[in-house]
Amino acid sequence: KLPDFVELKEVGPRDGLQNEQKWLPTEDKVEWINMLSDSGLGEIEYSSFVNPKWIPALSDARAVGKQLKRNPNVRYSALVPNMKGLEFALEAGIDGASVFMSASETHNLNNINKSIQNTYPVLKSVIEEAKRAGKKVTGYVSTVFDCPYEGKIAPNKVLSVCEKLLEFGVDDLSLGDTIGSAVPSQVEKLLDELLTRYPREKIILHFHDTRGMAIANIMTSMQYGINRFDSSIGGLGGCPYAPGAAGNVATNDILYLLHGLGIKTGINDKKIQEASLFIQNKLGKVLPSRSLLASGQ
Ligand code: HMG
Ligand code: MG
Question: What UniProt keywords are attached to this protein's entry (predicted)?
Answer without folding.
Answer: Lyase, Metal-binding
